[in-house]
Prior knowledge:
Layout: E1 3-7, E2 10-12, E3 18-25, E4 34-39, E5 45-51, E6 58-60, E7 68-73, E8 78-83, E9 92-98, E10 103-104, E11 108-112
Parallel strand pairs: 2-11
Antiparallel strand pairs: 1-3, 3-8, 4-5, 4-9, 5-6, 7-8, 9-10, 9-11
Amino acid sequence: QVQLVESGGGSVQAGGxxxxxxxxxxxxxxxxxxxxxxxxxGKGMEWVSGIYDDGSDTYYGDSVKGRFTISRDNARNxxxxxxxxxxxxxxxxxxxxxxxxxxxxRGTQVTVS
Length: 113
């Protein structure tokens, strides 16, 4: 079955960096776009970034543009989210999703103090 597993979350101070990973299995990874989303405590789900199946195009939400970078390694079935200049408002549970949101991981927590 399709599985997405996020990792790389943690606690950092403002201005720090983290790199999230989303490891996929159970489907043709290289044929699907992948997106990152986040949900802060008491708030709704926010789209963060997306990447095309071949990595040729990437997209970012306004709140992370210029600070986050999405990439993928289709040989490793993994999508990455490099997060720099983290701020307390980036604190959230971060999820990856694919196939138009049909499949989601369980999330990884990012806390910025």
